[in-house]
Design brief:
It is a single chain. The chain is mainly alpha-helical. 69% of the residues lie in helices and 0% in strands. The chain has helices at 3-14, 23-37, 45-57, 61-73, 76-79, 81-97, 101-108, 120-133, 137-148, 156-167. The chain is elongated, with a radius of gyration of 18 Å.
């Protein structure tokens, strides 16, 4: 990846709030992303990821889904494992937004076993949202509490245990 290009794309996203939450603002954001993506080789997984982000960020999850999928299929993980994990999180969110939460669960569940990084809590948060949409609220709550527990100044062990007990077969949460 070209560091200058990455910095310019990051600067564009840093200005996200400058784009009004209107159809025109969204179109301008997508146009600015497209202009930077045009500097990459055609079909670049990184460009597809950024274009998916632009559609997603402007409320068009349905248009983001195929771009995210294509970015992963074309080897985004080889270019940027971090962006590939971001893509999976964002794709799962977009799938949920388009009524396909089960696909989001299938996509994020393996990420629970992936090497740990700064996106672990985000994986759990979006997996919990997908699970909740499927009526699996106890599992969702267990994930969220499990992610929250290490950040608490006190009661970390208790919170983690209660999270586990929410989904452990035959367990009683009051135990």
């Amino acid at each position: 990846m070209d560091q200058d290009w990455e910095e310019r794309m990051a600067a564009l996203w840093d200005r996200f709030d400058d784009y009004a939450e209107t159809e025109e603002g969204g179109a301008r954001l997508r146009s600015d992303v497209d202009a930077l993506v045009a500097e990459l080789p055609e079909g670049s997984p990184l460009g597809l990821f950024e274009q998916g982000c632009a559609w997603d960020s402007t409320g068009d999850s349905d248009k983001a889904v195929p771009l995210y999928r294509e970015a992963l299929e074309k080897g985004l993980a080889d270019i940027s494992p971090d962006k590939a994990r971001q893509t999976k999180i964002q794709l799962a969110s977009s799938l949920r937004n388009t009524g396909r939460a089960e696909e989001g669960v299938a996509l994020l569940t393996p990420e629970l076993l992936a090497p740990s990084d700064e996106l672990d809590d985000a994986v759990r948060a979006f997996l919990a949202l997908c699970l909740s949409d499927l009526g699996r609220d106890r599992e969702a709550l267990a994930l969220v509490l499990g992610a929250l527990a290490p950040h608490l100044p006190r009661y970390q062990r208790s919170t983690a245990n209660y999270a586990r007990l929410l989904v452990e077969p035959g367990a009683h949460p009051g135990a």
